[in-house]
Every structure is written in C-alpha cells, then in structure tokens.
Specification:
Elements: E1 2-6, E2 11-16, E3 23-24, E4 29-35, E5 38-43, E6 48-53, E7 60-61, E8 66-71
Antiparallel strand pairs: 1-8, 2-4, 2-7, 3-6, 4-5, 6-8
Length: 75
C-alpha cells in the first residue's frame, strides 16, 4: 500500500535525507523544509520503502502538498 508523505508547512526544501528505494523506519527523516527561518523535519509516519520523491532541494512546497510516497506493508 502506498502512503503519501505530506508537507506540514509552506516553505523551501532545505535538504533531502532519503533516496528512492531506501527502507525507512517509522518516524525517520525524509527531508527538511525551511519556513520562516525554521528548519522543519518531515518524517515518515510508519516504516516502509520510499517509492517516489516528488521534490528536490530548493523546491518551494505548499502546506498539504504530497512530497513523497512510501510503500508500507506487504505487496
């Protein structure tokens, strides 16, 4: 099952910590968004494999935008 990872704030992608195909633990950082001079880590909600990364460093994202997709559970 694919789970969307959502931007929690509007801001700029500051760093990307994960790569497509990487297995991530629950609450592991995927990327960091800079908003109003604050760095906000965006983490997985559950463990799985990163299937799609929809942003790159420097992209501006809006609150609520899908920024990545995580494959969780069995196929």
């Amino acid at each position: 099952m694919l789970v969307d990872i959502i931007a929690e704030v509007t801001g700029t992608v500051w760093t990307v910590s994960a790569v497509v195909g990487q297995t991530l633990a629950s609450d592991e950082e995927v990327l960091v968004i800079e908003s109003m001079k604050m760095e906000i880590p965006i983490c997985t909600g559950e463990s799985g494999t990163l299937q799609e990364l929809l942003v790159v460093k420097g992209d501006v994202v809006q609150e609520g935008a899908v920024i990545a997709r995580l494959e969780v559970g069995g196929a």
